[in-house]
Amino acid sequence: MGLVKRQPGERRWGMPVEFPLRDCDGMHVALDRRSVSDRRKSPASLEDLLILFSQLPSADSGHKQ
């Protein structure tokens, strides 16, 4: 695969990719992680998190005044 120079703002969708490769910051990319689930997303829904947090004791309930 030859090096294809792209213009700023032009995406590379549909172009063939071979791994391992180096990204635009020079970092070594061993695997295609686009099909892996996003680790930043919570496994629980927003409603589930609201229920969990509502059941926690308040932060200042342990402090005596």
Features:
single chain, 65 residues, little secondary structure, two-stranded antiparallel ribbon
Note the beta-strand portion: 5-15%
Helical percent range?
10-25%
**What is Rg?**
22 Å
How would you classify the helix and strand content by structural class? Answer: little secondary structure
Biggest sheet layout: 2 strands, antiparallel
Average pLDDT number: 78
Number of strands: 2
Shape: elongated
Number of helices: 1
Spans of at least 5 consecutive residues whose pLDDT stays below 50 are none
Biggest sheet strand line-up: 1-2
In angstroms, what separates the terminal alpha carbons? 70 Å
Helices and strands, in order, run as EEH
List the helices and strands and how they pair.
Layout: E1 21-22, E2 28-29, H1 46-54
Antiparallel strand pairs: 1-2
